[in-house]
Amino acid sequence: MNSLNKAQVIGNITRDPELKTTTGGQSVCTVGVATNRYWTDSSGQKKDEAEFHNIVVWGKLAEICDQYLKKGMKVFFEGRLQTRNWEDESGVKHYRTEIVAQDMIILTPKGDGPSESYDSNLDKVPTPPKAKAEVIDPEDLPF
Fold first, then answer.
1. What single string gives the DSSP state of each residue in 77-99?
2. Given the DSSP bridges, would you call strands 74-87 and 18-21 parallel, antiparallel or unpaired?
3. Number of separate domains in the chain
4. What letter does residue 71 receive in the DSSP assignment?
5. Share of residues in the chain with pLDDT > 70 (%)
6. Is residue 49 part of a domain?
7. What number of other Cβ atoms are within 10 A of residue 143's Cβ?
8. Phi, psi (deg, nearest 5) at residue 54
């Protein structure tokens, strides 16, 4: 039987995207997204909470993200969850859960973007290609 690993987030970009290239020539872009949750607790107090997500995008879609996304923009990402682990120089093991994005849609309306370059280039944004799920070799990660 098959299983399902799918993540979808709609939120705001928390930092400008960072584009790198692996030693094999593959583009990889990392970006942060914040989502918010609102609720009323048992005493009637309104509460809100932010959750921060690490997004990793590969290939042509990574280059598109780097070119058009800016801090503060509202965006939709769809992909799969992946947890990486590594050991630092002092032997401490670290874990990082990320969304490996396969699709991205800019939701910030034209003219509402945080930067003029976004406003002037929005009409030129190509439809992001549907990326195939890639097996990520930890040796190819530039960070």
1. EEEEEEEEEEE-TTS-EEEEEEE
2. unpaired
3. 1
4. T
5. 77
6. yes
7. 10
8. -95, 125
Q: Give me Rg for the CA atoms of the chain.
A: 17
Looking at the domain assignment, is residue 141 inside a domain?
no
Q: Identify the three-state secondary structure at position 143.
A: coil
Structural domain includes residue 34: yes
Residue 56 near residue 96, CB atoms below 8 Å: no
Cα(67)–Cα(123) distance, rounded to whole angstroms?
13
Q: How far apart are CA 45 and CA 39, in angstroms?
A: 8
pLDDT confidence tier of residue 143, bands split at 50, 70 and 90: low
Q: pLDDT by residue (tens digit) across 24-55?
A: 999 999 999 999 999 999 999 999 999 999 99
11 lies in which domain range? Answer: 7-125
What's the CATH code of the domain at 87?
A: 2.40.50.140
Residue 21 lies in a domain: yes
Separation in Å, CA 27 to CA 45, 55, 61, 63, 88: 46, 14, 9, 7, 24
Q: Say which amino acid occupies 33.
A: V
